[in-house]
Structures are given as structure tokens and as C-alpha cells.
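Sanity check record (used in CI):
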Amino acid sequence: MEATKLFNHHHSFHLRNHSKDPEKLQLFSTVPLFSKNISFIKKSSLSSNSQTHFTSLNFHENPSLKPQNKDGFSSNKLIMEFSEQGLFEDVIRVYVRMLRNGFQVQDFKFFPCVIKSFGGLSDVKSSRQIHGHVLKLGFLADVYVVNALLGMYFKCWEIKDAVQVFEKMGERDLVSWNSMISGFYQSKDYLGSLMIFSLMTKEHGLFPNRVGCLSAVSSCASIKSLILGREIHGFVLKNGLENDEFLVSGLIEMYMKCGDVRNAEHVFNSIVNKESVRVNTVIWNVMIMGYVSNECLSKAQELFVEMLELEIEPDSSTLVAALVLCTQLLDLSLGKQIHRLILAFGLENDTRIQTALIEMYFKCCYPESALKIFRRSHSDNLVMWGAVISNSAQNDFPFRALELFCNFMSKYGFPDSQMLLAVLRSCSSLALKAKGMEIHCLAVKTGCVSDFYVGSSLVDMYGKCGDIESAQNIFSRLRFRDLVAWNALICGYSQNEWVDEALAAFCDMQREGIRPNSVTTACILSVCGHLSVRILCKEVHCFLIRQGWNSNVLVSNSLIAAYAKCGDINYSWIIFENMHERNQVSWNTIISALGMHGDMDKMFASFVKMQHAGMKPDLVTFTSLLSACSHAGRVDMGCNFFQSMVEEYKLQPQVEHYTCMVDLLGRAGHLSQAYDLVMDMPCEPDDRIWGSLLGSCRSHGDEKLAKVVANHLFELDATSIGYRVLLSNLLEDLGKANEVVKVRSEIKDMGLKKQPGCSWIEIDNDIHVFVAGDCSHHQLEEIYPVIDSLTLELKQAGYVPHLPLTTLLLDEPV
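Expected output for DYW domain-containing protein:
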């Protein structure tokens, strides 16, 4: 049954597509439909099926079969057959040929079939011509003809015309009302469908048939109106339609979409023991998918197994529902079993099943199997391509997503908005601004740039690529700014340290009536941590408590990090201890926070507890551990952690781990070991790792190694003033006046200038900012005496400040 429905749907879709062919539309637009000059009727244009009929019915050679015969029986029979088979163009050709051969239309009884055919072609202009034709002939008094006109206009999506026809009807029967109810539903005017249903039953006292009831129930499901759905259910019971298979599946779907699982189960249980209904696969499919959509996953699994035990053969929709179940359960083992079942039933080439399999394997972290299915499918289905590209982008395969997208573009042309969203996400994660700009141009060319989801993704992409100005421009042009768009802008500000703009956007967003969510507050807490402003962090924390989000894992993780960066490790620890649920990020964040504050014992104890909690340390965990060991000078512990990461946890160290180890060894004075480690790295060292080693060379006065390291640095970044100043200071410490002058002269010749140092402090909810060389603070006369006093106390305590060689001062500060 379902296969027949799908075939009919695709077949009518095929006909509609052909009706939109410019050459075929010309048949109806350039020639008056019922004029004598109907030259477009050609035997070759008929379908293969109708060709046989017209061969045997040669109107010119066999006068006895000419349409102008008294009853026109043969042609009428053809019209009925073609109409039933959905061969709408052929129906129209037969009717026009009948007119050409002098048939008396006043005696014609098959106008509903002809009108239905015009509706099947979804050609508004021609449909209005047949309407005018029957009006001229005086057939609008026939209720069957007018009912056909109603269906025709709805199929052409001309709701206004259908309503006008309905309002002018002198006589309305049950078909008229049911046509309106189902027509409004098919046109996605669900409220209109329900209003007609109410008008028919309450004001006119008529009872709709199963078609009208099904359309009304489906309308309730579409707008999730449980109250109206229950009323229609009562009407169905009252009129003895509760055993109709289509209505049963419609009621179950309505209750499931409205979240009323209990009533859906009641409807299902009331019919499941009736043999005639129980074997209906559609009802089982609706029930299983309803359980899945309402997250009753165990019940969905049990029902699927029960269906198989009752030997009810699943169809493609059943197996798609089962695969969606596996996707939500993240149960790869069950997914593989269903895959074997699909092969057993010979449904492996079904496009919907292939797409669901791809989705399941991706979500269950088995991407190679998903890609294998995709490659074998050779499908040009847009949904399948979108699923593969989107899942590749979401599952940390951004390069593959971009490669697949390029393949799609080369084969099939322009993408849809879903594909653009996926590749923009890939460009964001890889910070590929150039590629992102290409996608932006493509979005403009295809008109998808007006889609606010695409617009929000563009804001996110430019923000992650560091181009805040472009992100702002895109954001300002969005016609609709939802939470996603605001979050993209605020996160872009946060990640690029535009802290003032991030806070301003946070306020503007709320002024526009957009309520922030956990993602928004996580970004704002990141800003608080960057500013190290504890009072601002506490304000956001209070806001989160008022909103009831303090138990959210993402929010709690952000609070731990923010308080730690604001210097309040006690609050970080309290939040961590009070968390009801902890994930990998929670443990990594508290370990990093404790290491940042030098609480090594508590940090190590947390690392042990993390393992006891069943959390496996990852690369981020070891970055925090090694960084803490480096700052605390715990060389042995750091080396043990590094060894454990490689040997015990089988993790491949990244550049950041080698940077921590080089920093650890360098701070402890093991400069040669640190240099050997850099040279033996399997990955390419960056400027940070060489910079760390250069800093250690200065601390320990190793001029020879410092020059070697500096050469490596300047090869990577010749314009980096920070490292040149660091080398200059090292040489100054060693009294190498001539070399200092040489380095600083190079800085001046290259036109490089060092950004002045900046610091700030929070006192009584006010933030005081100080920039090197700036004497504009209004309390300057009070501040410097205190600094002098503190410096004196430091000297008395044994601190010897480093004094630069006055003879080596430059004319301009660097």
C-alpha cells in the first residue's frame, strides 16, 4: 500500500514537472484551448499506453468509432481510463480531439474527469480556461462539476479561487465540504481546514467522511493542537469510524506530535488485536516513530522487536524509523543488526534508507561505513548529499566536508541552504576566511544569503576568522536577528577579545527582547575571565541563578574558568563540588584552574578522582597538567605526566605539549635537553616554543643558545618585535652593549614598535587602567609614593631590581 502511494506521488510529481516544461506549457498558453485550430494534438506526443488506444481507434478511418457518434462511448471510456491512471495530458488530448470531430458537448458526462486532469497538471491558466468553458456551457449547476473545480484549484494552489467557487455554489454535498477540508490541509492552511470542519459540523449539521476527518486530524497534528484533536477523535468515535486504518494512524500521529504518548498508546492498543488492522505496517510505523520523536526510545525498540516477532514485514518507513532510533540511542551494535535486516529484505538501494544509514553511522562515530554507503549509492539525491556533507562538518571532518561540497558543485551545480550551512561551519572550524568568502559569494548568487540561518553562519564564520568588521556588516543587514545570530556576534567579539563590544552586544540583545541562553552566558563569562573583573563575573553568576541555569554543565564549566581567571579559585572549587553532572570539560577546567593557582596537591588529587569517575584524560587534560608543572617547577612530575600520556594513554603529543615540556626544562635550567627535545619533535615547532626557550636562555644567561634560538624565531617571523626585544634584553643583561645597539637598530630600521604595556585593577567595583608611560590617572600623586614605599620594602627584604644600562637607552622606547 505504501509502495503504491509512493509510486503515485512520484508519478504525479513527474507529470507536474513535465507540465512545467516550456514547450508543453506552450500547448495551453499560446493556443486557445477549445478553438478550432488545435494543431498541437499529435499522436507521437501521447504516452506509450495511450498510443495503442489511438492506433486502434482511428477516428478518420473508422467512422463507427468517431466521437460524434451518439454516445461517444469509446472516447468516454478512454477519458475514464486515462484519468484513473493519472495520464492527465492524454485525457485533455482525447477531449480536444472529440471537440474537433464535432462532438456535442451538451451530452458530455465526463467533465469531472477532464477538470481533474487540468488540476493534475497544476497549470493555473489552462485550469481557468476549462472553468470558463464549463461556465459558458452552463454546467456549473452540476454539483459534481463544481466539486471537481474545487479540487482543481486546490491542486493549482489557488486557494482564493477555490473559496470563491465554494461560496457561489447553489448546492453543496458532502464531497464539497470534504474537498474544502482536505484542500486547505493539502495547501498547508491547517487552521482553514479546521474552520471548515467546524462550520460543516456545528453550523450545518453535516458529518464529514473519513477523508475530511483524516485531513482535520492531520491539521491538528501539524499545528500540535491537542484540544481540537481530542474533539475530532470524539467525533470519529461517535460516527463509528474508529476502525478505519487511515484514521487510526492519523490519530496516533496526532497524539504523538502533540506529545500525548498515553492517548496514542490507547488508540493503538484498541485496534492492535483486530486482525484486519494489526497487519497494517503504517500503524506500527507511526507508533514507532512517535515513540522515537518523544524520546521513548526503549518503548520504540520493544515495539519494533514485537512487530518482527508477529511476522509483520517491515517496509522502508519502518526501517528508517528503526535507524533513527539507533541514531538517538547511539547504539552502533543495534544499527548494524538493522543494516543486516535491510540487506535481508533487499531494501539497501532505497534512498531514504541509505540516507538514514549514513546518518546513523556518522552519529555513532563510524564515518567510514557512512562514506562507503554513500559512494556505493551513486545517488544524485540532494538530501543524501546534504546529510553526508553536514555530518562530515559536524563530526570533525571539515576538510572532507569541503571536498564533498566541491564534488557536488562540479556534478550538480548550485547547493541548497543546508549544504551552505554545513560548509560555512567547516570554514569556521578551520578559520578558512578565503574559502568562507567564496561560500558567501555563492550564497549571494543563489539567493540563500537572505536565509537568516545562512546569515547567522556567515557572522559566525567571519568572527572565527578574526574579521569582526565583516561579521558586524553581515549582522547589521540581517532582516531577522534571532538568538543564534546574536550568539554568533557575541562569540566572535569574545574570541577576538573585543570585550567592550561583547558586553554592549549582550545588553543590546536583551533590549531587543532576545533572552540569552547558556551559549551566550558562556561567551560573556569568557569576557569576564579575560578582563579578570570579579564583580562582573559575580553579576553574570547572579543572572544565571535567577534564570535557573546554574545547574547547566556548560554554564558551570564557564563559571569555574571565569572565577579562576578572576583570581577566586575558592569559588571555582565550590561550583565544581556542587555540580550534579560533570563531563570531560568540567574535570579539565578545574584541573587547569588549580594548576593556574599553583595548588599542585589538589590538582593531582583531582586528576586521580577524574580517572576514578570513569573519565579518560585527553590531550587538553595533559596540557593543563604539564603547564602547571612548568610554572611550579615540578620537573619530575611533568616528565612522568608526559611519559604517561604517550605510553599509558597512547596519546600523540601536540605542539602545545612540547611547548610545556620545553618551558618546564628551560625554567629548571636544562637548556640543552630542552633544545634537543625541540629538534626531535615529530611536528614542526612554532614561534611559541622557540620563544619559550629564548626566555629560558635569558633567565639563565645562555648567550650562545639564545642566538641559535633567535635565528629559528626570525626565520618563522622576521617582524616579531617581542622576541627581538627579548634578545636585546638578554644581551643587555650580559653587558653586550654593541650587540644591543645592533639589535635595537634593526628594530628601528624595520619600523617596528612595541605596544606599550597595559594593566588594570578592580577597586570598589571600579576598574582602573594603567598604560606604560601614561601619567593621566587622576590619583597619580597618591599612587607613585605608594609604589616607592613598596619598592623600598622589597629591597629591604632582599630583592635586587634589574637596572638597565643607562648608556644603552634608545631615543625611542621599544
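The radius of gyration is 38 Å. If this sentence no longer matches the regenerated C-alpha cells, the check is flagged for review.
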